[in-house]
Amino acid sequence: MKSALYAGTVTHRRHATEATGQVAHSFHYPITLPLLFLDEIDEVIAMHPRWSRRGVDAVWFRRRDYVDCSVRPLDEAVRDAVEARSGRRPEGDIAQLGHLRRWGWLFNPICVYYCFDAAGHVDQLLLEVRNTPWHERHLYALDARTSPQRFAKEMHVSPFLGMDHDYVLTFSEPGEHLALHLGNRRGEERVFDAGMSLERREITRASLGDLAWRHPFATLGVSAGIYYEALRLFAKHAPFHGHPRRGRAETREDLGV
User: Fold this and answer.
1) How far is CA 112 from its chain centroid?
2) Looking at the predicted structure, is the pLDDT value of residue 79 above 60?
3) What is the pTM of this model?
């Protein structure tokens, strides 16, 4: 089976720079994510009785959670999205790295789609990014044949970082080890860095059950963790950036802080 589970660590580091108001902040946490090849999703779900495509369960793959939020095949939606943004349509396998719903709840800060060529190498990437607290989503299609990739930030992701940034992405192809790093840069100023360093685990009925029962509230923990770290940034008096498309910028006073 090409699909696998990847376990390791996520790290976030905010640097003390002009762009961050000289407020540094960092944290890390353990994570386990499924890497699902889209042509194997039904096979994987059939391996465990509490993994589902039909409705709320311990682990639920709900098609509407991804890309265009429709019910059409995710494979088709990813290929269309990449082609619309890059002019090149992926022709090989596609694998999704991201959380699935746990007991009905899901928030994916980022979901990565690896688009392979006919030779089995990652040729293109589609990043599906969501923001907090608005839960909007934005797609970035990237040419994976060159690294690093630098591209403009196009969606307001966090109230604690501005929009005048570029992203810089480096990644490894999924193998025994999987790494991905996404940094915020303002010119040459290093503003923020987030990364994942993960190790491959084979998918078995036991490993799927372990993910379901040992980490039943993992996705709720993602959301709770985001707000907890936001409170820590407020306590450090980090600059606050209102949503650029939602009226005037909020201030700390507006929020009663």
Assistant:
1) 6
2) yes
3) 0.93
For residue 152, pLDDT beyond 70: yes
Name the DSSP letter for residue 67: T
Whole-Å CA distances, 160 to 25, 140, 227 = 11, 21, 12
Residues found in the chain: 257
The CA-based diameter of the chain, rounded to the nearest angstrom, is 56
Buried b (16+ CB within 10 A) or exposed e, 22-35: eeebeeeeebbbbb
What's the pLDDT tens digit per position in 175-225?
999 999 999 999 999 999 999 999 999 999 999 999 999 889 999 999 999
Instruction: Tell me how far apart the alpha carbons of residues 181 and 171 are, in angstroms, rounded to a whole number.
Output: 6
Q: Are the C-beta atoms of 124 and 90 separated by less than 8 Å?
A: yes
Where does 38-102 show beta strands of DSSP type E? 51-52, 59-60, 94-97
Q: Which amino acid is at 78?
A: V
Q: What is the SS3 assignment for 10?
A: strand
Burial of 46 (0-12, 13-18, 19+ CB in 10 A): exposed
* CA neighbours closer than 13 Å in the CB half-sphere of residue 68: 14
Q: Where are the beta strands (DSSP E) in 38-86?
A: 51-52, 59-60
Please state, in angstroms and rounded to a whole number, the distance separating the CA atoms of residues 64 and 218: 20
Over the stretch 37-48, which tens digit does the pLDDT of each residue have? Answer: 999 999 999 999
d(CA 247, CA 24): 28
Residue 253 has pLDDT above 60, yes or no: no
3-class secondary structure, 248: coil
Token pair of 95 as six digits: 């694998």
